[in-house]
Amino acid sequence: MSTKSNKIAFQGEPGANSHLAAKAVHPELEPLACATFEDAFQAVSEGRARYGMIPIENSVAGRIADIHHLLPDSGLSIVGEHFEPIHHQLLGVKGASLPKIKAVMSQTPALGQCRKLIREMGLSIITGGDTAGSARAVAEKGDPTLAAIASRLAAEIYGLQILKQDVEDEHHNTTRFVIMAKEAEEAPKGVPAVTSFIFRVRNVPAALYKALGGFATNGVNMTKLESYQLDGSFTATQFYAEVDGHPEDKPLRLAFEELEFFSSMLKILGVYPASPFRAKKAAL
Questions:
Q1: pLDDT band at residue 1, thresholds of 50, 70 and 90?
Q2: CB neighbours (10 Å) of residue 157?
Q3: CB distance 163 to 147 below 8 Å
Q4: I need a surface site. Which of 17, 99, 209, 220 has the fewest CB within 10 A?
């Protein structure tokens, strides 16, 4: 190990799905729980953590709120990606049983991903800050009528029992994470790569259409394009995009040249190896 930190930061409490993702990708690093995404970014920026494990989108719930605003201003680079299958467990204190449960606590996205169970059991909903924090709260309350929706790891950490396993509505439920670092770790040429970037188009007619034309004419596959507002404006002025390939590859280099011509700003956030999950899903 070098003199760099031996920690990997994530948002949430111990036992969160981000904790699971951190353990899956870097089991050799010590997980560092952070209260907010900003705190996780700051831990990496200050050198208290080598990497940050940041969720960016979910196959059921869509993109994670605020992340696209935070990524460009973090000063960090995306150095990898990870797709974590999300399996929610219904957890209760020792002695609890399914017939006793009257209410369930978890964060809003997790509750939304388990609507069928909640409706079938007629449970009241209590919104928690995150899944692991909800598990901790249920353990502290000791109420056999209150359950949490959280991970198996949370059950182990907080001494809860699994009343019903894998209660998510969709079993393809997967969260994509990006791995952030203070210094860029660019993917080597020759390996399947993803390039993430942000840009703003010039204020001229059909600027976006023209800016993106280079990707089509050069055969570059754009896998993501999302717009979001800046400075309270209701005009979509900034875009977050991802493409297959490396900027040193001729097709992508030419596409970026065309994009720059029609853009007022272009910033590459990371060039990193594509997860094997992508090829697996494409083969199905």
A1: very low
A2: 18
A3: yes
A4: 99
What distance in Å separates the CA atoms of residue 151 and residue 225, rounded to the nearest whole number?
Answer: 31
* Amino acid of residue 278: R
The residue ranges of every structural domain in the chain are: 7-85+173-181, 89-164, 193-283
Residue 50 DSSP code: S
d(CA 125, CA 113): 13
pTM of the model: 0.91
CATH number attached to the domain at 89-164: 3.40.190.10
Which residue numbers are catalytic?
175, 177
Distance CA 219, CA 249 (A): 12
CA distances, 116 to each of 121, 170, 282 (Å): 9, 10, 29
Specify the residue for token string 């997790």. 110
Q: How far is CA 82 from the centre of its chain?
A: 9
pLDDT tens digit sequence for 120-131: 999 999 999 899
Residue with tokens 């996780």: 40
